[in-house]
Specification:
The protein is of the alpha/beta class. Among the domains are: about 280 residues, TIM Barrel (Alpha-Beta Barrel), CATH 3.20.20; about 90 residues, Methane Monooxygenase Hydroxylase, Chain G, domain 1 (Up-down Bundle), CATH 1.20.58.930; about 45 residues. Helices cover about 45% and strands about 15% of the residues. It contains 23 helices and 21 strands. The strands form 3 sheets. Strands 4, 13, 14, 15, 16, 17, 18, 19, 20 and 21 form a 10-stranded mixed sheet that branches. An 8-stranded parallel β-barrel has the order 5-6-7-8-9-10-11-12, surrounded by 7 helices. A 3-stranded antiparallel sheet has the order 1-2-3. A hairpin with an 8-residue loop joins strand 16 and strand 17. Helix 16 crosses helix 17. The protein is globular. The chain starts with a helix and ends in a 7-residue tail after the last helix.
Length: about 625
């Protein structure tokens, strides 16, 4: 019985669909992780969180990072391209590159470089700070360092200097003026550059970022501009430096057909350059390889209708076929699939602090008297007579009665006590109507909206703007589920709200294979902590998270699992303190404390409070400055 419930719960949350093979529900009803692909080593996430909270003195929200998943995803990507090359007899090599904008944390980059040393994994940067970061990291001698984005003279100078550090730095030209500066600096420094051109293709991707590709794209050179680049390089005697062609049709491409079209167009551009005797040997296809956030395997914006293997097969076959038709060498393929490499490795764990109940959940019992207003009596009649056969009409009658109740209240005809009675009766009617509609099992938008209104709100100890900004900004769906009690059937449906003072700090859309759920199945709260996890947050969420309400970075733990199943917490990091966030907002914490102490002292001098009260207030202020910004 217990195992069957566990299997039902796993299916309810769809963990096998979106978990990438890494996340499971174990026999204890806890979330578990198997961080190495094809390996049965396993860690119990609930036990890890309990250990961290009880024994390591960290609190939720907690970012749990599994570095081994980074290596697993990288190898999965590389093996897909290797298999595709063998199948299609493709004669170019594959060079994976990680764009650090996806997750610039040093430990993430170091893990990619360590795990991918034999795969010649490289890095991509697009700003001055990112350039300094990647130049400081050890890479294998054959790996690439791709410089994208708009560049000034200082950027180009340092990128060229990177060649003197033994790195294979490719400067990707976005504007003609960048190439002119690069040619001049090359001569001044005596460094022969490696140049790439970013092409503006006609083809576009699909999904949320479709507009980032195509003719109106922010980045890329037109055909005439690329031809001018060839002329300028030839004139400067640097045509042999033009070694890479780059393009990008958008992130999180949902439809594999768009990938085929783009690869065909890019391969034609490459082939024409080769026929012009331009020695390009690398074709950088950019990012775009998506993550199936909801597990539906469709073209829905939170999903993808292909696998990593299908993506690689389409890329390799299409480019190889065009090159064979045009009788040009197969280029080395450079991929910048940062999202799929990083998304799976991190989850955010939060604790539910409380339940914000609907009026129907905690309303007092109502007694209707003969002298109550008629509108109250009518609502009581509707409540007493509602059945599975007339629930729709009863609900509509109740809506009319509610409007009458508020109209009469505004006219002074109904007391505040009567208004309270009417509200209790109305929500009781709504609760019964929603249950009858659910039992009828008929899709009805009206009652689906009512059920969503009646759903509980679980207050979670996190800031959505800090931990999952895409959930707020672009309505990105992230899988969410409890990490324990998964051998119990959930009794509640709820939406989630965070602890920020912002009405947008809530999650009202949840992953589902067939649709987007408006509420999540959760367990009733008891005296024990209740933990939820948000998955696939390893890409973009950390770096794009804001400090809204001055909530800081969360506590963090890194987990590594040995081959024998032994679990190690290799890194424990506390979250930002209040003092650190005050400094972020340009407050001096010592001056803040001094100012508060002066205000309290003034109250003592005025006889408003005593010395003991003043000391207590100052001590509480000083203690708060040293605490984390989240609830404890």
């Amino acid at each position: 019985m217990g195992l069957r419930v566990v299997e039902e719960i796993a299916e309810l949350y769809g963990i096998e669909n979106w978990g990438g093979g890494y996340f499971h529900v174990n026999r204890s009803g806890h979330l578990s992780v198997r961080p190495v692909e094809g390996d049965q080593r396993e860690a119990d996430v609930f036990e890890i969180v309990q250990d961290v909270v009880r024994n390591r003195r960290l609190t939720t929200p907690l970012l749990v990072r599994f570095p081994q998943i980074l290596g697993s995803q990288l190898l999965r990507l590389c093996h897909a391209y290797e298999a595709a090359a063998r199948s299609c007899e493709y004669r170019g090599d594959h060079f994976p590159v990680f764009p650090i904008k996806v997750n610039p944390r040093r430990e993430v980059l170091s893990e990619f470089l360590r795990a991918g040393a034999t795969q010649n994994v490289g890095l991509e940067c697009g700003s001055r700070a990112e350039l300094c970061a990647v130049l400081s990291l050890e890479q294998s001698s054959e790996s690439l360092l791709i410089c994208n984005g708009f560049k000034d003279e200082a950027f180009l100078r340092l990128a060229l200097q990177g060649m003197r550090a033994g790195k294979r730095v490719f400067v990707v030209i976005e504007k003609l003026n960048e190439l002119r500066m690069a040619i001049r600096l090359s001569g001044e420094l005596g460094i022969t550059p490696l140049i790439g051109l970013r092409a503006k293709l006609y083809s576009r991707g699909s999904g949320k970022w479709e507009a980032s590709g195509g003719e109106a794209a922010k980045f890329g050179l037109t055909t005439s501009e690329m031809l001018e680049c060839v002329r300028l390089l030839d004139e400067a005697g640097l045509l042999d430096s033009l070694r890479l062609l780059h393009f990008h049709i958008g992130s999180q491409i949902t439809n594999i057909k768009r990938v085929k079209n783009a690869m065909k167009e890019a391969a034609r551009v490459y082939a024409r350059f080769r026929q012009m005797k331009v020695p390009i040997e690398y074709l950088d296809i950019g990012g775009g390889l998506g993550v199936d956030y909801d597990g539906s395997k469709t073209t829905f914006e939170g999903s993808i209708n292909y696998t990593i293997e299908e993506f690689a097969n389409n890329v390799v076959y299409t480019i190889g076929s065009v090159c064979d038709e045009d009788n040009v060498p197969h280029p080395h393929l450079v991929t910048e699939s940062g999202r799929v490499m990083a998304a799976y490795h991190a989850i955010t764990v939060t604790s539910v602090r409380d339940e914000i109940e609907t009026f129907a959940d905690n309303a007092p019992a109502v007694t209707v008297d003969d002298d109550d207003p008629q509108v109250i009596s009518e609502l009581k009649v509707v409540l007493d007579s509602i059945t599975p056969k007339n629930y729709r009409e009863s609900y509509h009658d109740a809506l009319e009665n509610k409007d009458d109740l508020y109209t009469q209240f505004n006219l002074g005809l109904v007391s505040l006590e009567d208004r309270a009675k009417g509200e209790v009766l109305f929500w009781d009617i709504c609760d019964r109507a929603a249950r009858f509609a659910s039992e009828a099992d008929l899709a009805d938008p009206e009652f689906e909206n009512l059920s969503r209104t009646l759903a509980a709100k679980y207050l979670c100890n996190l800031s959505l703007f800090r931990s999952a900004p895409d959930s707020w900004a672009i309505q990105q769906l992230f899988p969410i589920m409890p990490i324990h009690r998964l051998n119990e059937r959930p009794q509640e449906t709820a939406t989630l709200v965070d602890i920020t003072c912002d009405s947008d700090g809530c999650v009202k859309r949840f992953v589902d294979q067939k649709d987007v759920k408006k509420a999540l199945e959760l367990h009733s709260l008891n005296r024990e902590p209740y933990y939820l996890a948000m998955f696939l947050v390893g890409a973009y969420q950390e770096v794009m998270g804001s400090y809204h309400n001055l909530f800081g970075q969360t506590a963090e733990v890194h987990v590594v699992v040995d081959a024998d199943g032994t679990c190690h917490l290799t890194r424990l990091l506390t979250g930002n303190t209040v003092e650190e966030m005050l400094a972020f907002a340009r407050f001096d914490s010592e001056q803040c404390l001094k100012n508060f102490r002066q205000m309290v002292s003034a109250q003592v001098a005025a006889g408003q409070i005593g010395d003991g009260q003043a000391e207590s207030a100052v001590n509480d202020y000083a203690a708060m400055i040293r605490k984390t910004t989240y609830l404890e």
